[in-house]
């Protein structure tokens, strides 16, 4: 599966062959994408994996659940309408080609 991820440094990373089930946080962290920290290890408890999903992909990626939404509130100053926590978005076939941009750290 293909994912394009832009780091906070503006560097665009294109990944081919991403395995189904891999989260965007894992993908970014394993590949050193700037701005993806994943401090809580994917537990939806830190928001350091915050990404903006490209508008055209948001519907397919889905909306955050209640817990994720509560975490996103903590980074409300940099939250956008297509914000998601990268650890809560796992790759699946219909997301092949997904494009996301890493969000800047919250103030
Ligand atoms: Fe902590 Fe996603 S890695 S919320």
Automatic annotation (TrEMBL):
Organism this protein belongs to: Novosphingobium chloroacetimidivorans
Keywords: 2Fe-2S, Iron, Iron-sulfur, Metal-binding
PROSITE patterns according to UniProt: 2FE2S_FER_2
InterPro entries: 2Fe-2S_ferredoxin-like_sf (IPR036010), 2Fe-2S_ferredoxin-type (IPR001041), Adrenodoxin-like (IPR001055), Beta-grasp_dom_sf (IPR012675)
Pfam families attached to this UniProt entry: Fer2
GO molecular function, one term: electron transfer activity
Residue intervals of the 2Fe-2S ferredoxin-type domain: 1-106
Entry similarity comment: Belongs to the adrenodoxin/putidaredoxin family.
Gene Ontology annotations of biological process type: P450-containing electron transport chain
Protein name per its UniProtKB record: 2Fe-2S ferredoxin
């Amino acid at each position: 599966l293909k994912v394009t991820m832009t780091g906070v440094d503006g560097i665009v990373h294109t990944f081919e062959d991403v395995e189904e089930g891999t989260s965007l946080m894992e993908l970014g962290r394993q590949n050193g994408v700037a701005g993806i920290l994943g401090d809580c290890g994917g537990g939806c408890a830190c928001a350091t994996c915050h990404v903006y999903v490209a508008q055209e992909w948001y519907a397919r990626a889905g909306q955050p659940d209640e817990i994720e939404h509560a975490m996103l509130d903590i980074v409300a100053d940099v939250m956008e309408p297509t914000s998601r926590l990268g650890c809560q978005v796992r790759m699946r076939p219909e997301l092949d080609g997904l494009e996301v941009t890493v969000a800047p750290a919250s103030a």
